[in-house]
Please model this.
Amino acid sequence: MNPRRLLSTRIRKSLKTCGIEAPPLVRTASKPEFGDYQADGIMAAAKSLGKNPRALAEQVRKACLLQDRQCDGVDVIESVDVAGPGFLNVRLNDEFLARHLEVDAPLVEPTVRPQTVVVDYSSPNLAKEMHVGHLRSTIIGDAAARILESLGHRVIRQNHVGDWGTQFGMLLAHLSETGGDSRVLADLEEFYRDAKSRFDSDPGFADASRAMVVSLQSGDETARARWRQFIEVSLDHCQALYERLGTSLARADVMAESAYNDGLPDVISALDGKGLLTESEGAQCVFLPELGSELPVIVRKSDGAFLYATTDLAAIRHRAGRLAADRVLYFTDSRQSLHFRQVFAVAAAAGFKPPGTTLEHMPFGNMLGTDRRPFRTREGGVVKLTDLLNEAEARAFEEVSSRSPGMGEAERRAVARAVGTGAVKYADLSKNRTSDYVFDWNRMLAFDGNTAPYLQYAYARIRSLFRRGAVEPESLEGVAHPEAPAERALAVALVRFEEVLDQVAAEGMPHLLCGYLHDLATKFTGFYEQCPILGADTGERENRLRFAQRTARTLKTGLELLGIETVDRM
Ligand code: ARG
Model:
């Protein structure tokens, strides 16, 4: 149930009856005294119609109350007020709130218009070990994929790993000299460094590397076998990390760059067929006016090699065609924005996707250290994910041990795992993805503020409340009815869950869900302080326990959708 959408539909119809065609801008009220939702857009319409904005708003208000069809047998709107120069403040009906706060009803209704959504995320380069740069894509993309799925969309995960290109020549040449012993690949970072330094200093090795690329690309069996061996080891490294991080990526989601190789010549001929190719200095290029005429997209180099962009064009054909995607989402850092703008424009011009299929780049900023410079180890190297997560757990273990010294060690370790990994993921997810974000151990592990431990603790506190009251959550039935102001504030927050998920699904912005969960936990604290639960009379106690249970379920489900675990005790 999405209250904002319900209200938008009603207000849109009311605007129409008053001669206004523009969609209303409905958002949650910025202050409780403004009601639950605010609508604007009337002032602008009044101006263009030459009417008095407040008088027009009054007219819309009346239409709105007439329009308010019941939803599941109750009115949605309690009251609408005209405020300021022509805003509408809307208050939801308490009966309507209660109707949607059934203690054990599903939190989300599957959409009536399910879409097929391809989510391209993580997508590391297999030549090296995955590092923090791919952490953001993995975490944010995974949350987006889960949220889309929870709303009933068909999600196809695509891990577009880089497994092709000239750097593999160097790695395979190096691997050949070790006799193909896989043990040297235990540390990929080191292996890459060694290969690179030999490539730079030893001309004989550099020649062997280039020869290896040629053998590999011409399908030489020995080169291919060695390459497969390398890729397998590197993918195992990735999969181990996905499991450690609790991301939902499986080996079957890998659709590597090399998988598109055979389709690349066909991409070129299709572009040619559309008259889109221009030869420039021996290279095949596409010039599109919307990209600026001085900025060609090169699709084939003069030596015949294909590029990253060519592979992405083949991938678009596959995703829009074979996979029948309605939307394709790409989670990469913002440095690739130009690349995607180019590729999307070429794909559209070439008819590689139907007009209804949207291609959406979801860029994100860099991860910075507390010194506001790119996040690095103290020695200046790239931070490995494994080391990062080990440190997170160790720090969380210390914190948990000092807070709950009475808890057994095994349980403290389990809690530390959930809190440590959760903190790292949440710190990333809770920031608007388009900005750079500062990785700060102290802030992310704090038990207050917009952090994973705060939300995990809020959840555990509700579980402990049920334990103390000896109440089985499953034994509760019926609806949570808002009576006290703190209950009402909590009720309005609770019914917004699906609305927030819809927004995250549309915009690929998981920080909106984080902000929501943090607000919910805060509202719960207010309710908990003002409305005694276990000490209340039977009827009131039941009602408040329903609120507590709905809150716990929403927190747990919300965190799960972000890929973050909860624990029953902390
Ligand atoms: N492998 C690329 C990198 O590490 C990211 C790939 C993103 N997806 C895509 N379809 N281009 O930068």
